[in-house]
Amino acid sequence: RTRLPNFYKLEHLYDALEKSKKILVLTGAGISTSLGIPDFRSSQGFYSKMAHLGLDDPQDVFSLDVFRRNPNVFYSIAHMILPPDAAFTPLHGFIKLLQDKGKLLRNYTQNIDNLEGNVGVTPDHLVQCHGSFATASCFTCKYKVHGDVIFPHLRRQQIAYCPFCTAERRIKRQQFEKLEDEGATSRKFEFIDSYGVMKPDITFFGEDLPDRYHNFIKRDILECDLLLCIGTSLKVAPVSEIVNLLPEHIPQILINRDPIEHSEFDIELLGYGDEVITWLCKKLGWEIDHKDFEKIANS
Ligand code: OAD
């Protein structure tokens, strides 16, 4: 992508934000870090804390294959990224403000913390590209529960099992142990450790993105009039490819702590996202409805 020749000053951005009616907001973990939820790839991020698990690649904590063979891996670390209750950041508040002003086409979030819902972004304005902790399903029979049903298990680092598959799981395990005693397991069948295990409806590597993503993205890239990309390293496809799918004439803005190499943006506002957005809103005379907003704006 080459930058737009007529879109490089902050005045161009203010003007676009005032005029835009269909903003596509693409977000990642960086919009939630100020609440203490780690991002993934920063030096202190979630993936930096995976060394003790002995994985080839820390991203394998979200590998479907690893979960299938050993759900303990995920259950031992998921507590670190469980969403806090009723919390959100000024960046979440900003997305809600765009919605209230009738400017938000859709927020494509890669986050699984479900905090966009806390601030009041409505489901029709939201695509959770990588699913979320909001619900969980049985790995075997797909029985679905509210996510918070398994939160206590995740916090205790204890596997949650499906109530409908428990008996069957026990029988299969006994069969397996008997065969193992006879030294015949590999010839007969393998007991799959994830049998009847509840898995949060997060999109793991090896799984397709939710239908909602595929249903909306094709038309949204043609409809949007501005892209705001906030708090993401754009390292994970297919979401990272959205910036390359947009028509050439759509301005693309980055708000991120670190520069990213994946794409050319017209304007890059580098810094802590909450501070950048607070400053930007002040310039525009917009008010974010957030309890911490004043504190940050005056600091
Ligand atoms: P990353 O950790 O890859 O990138 C987070 C980005 O946010 C980095 O570029 C940081 O510089 C920036 N950042 C951190 N704190 C910030 C702050 N306070 N203000 C502004 N920017 C800040 O996270 P994602 O891009 O979201 O998949 O990662 C994408 C996907 O990779 C995730 O959805 C996750 C992971 O595998 C699943 O959860 C399934």
TrEMBL record:
Belongs to the sirtuin family. Class I subfamily. Zn(2+) binds at residues 138, 141, 162, 165. The chain holds residues 237 to 535 of 568 of the full protein. Residues 3-287 form the Deacetylase sirtuin-type domain. Its cofactor is Zn(2+). This is Unnamed protein product. One of its GO terms (cellular component) is nucleus. It comes from the Eukaryota. Keywords: Metal-binding, NAD, Nucleus, Repressor, Transcription, Transcription regulation, Transferase, Zinc. It is found in: Nucleus.
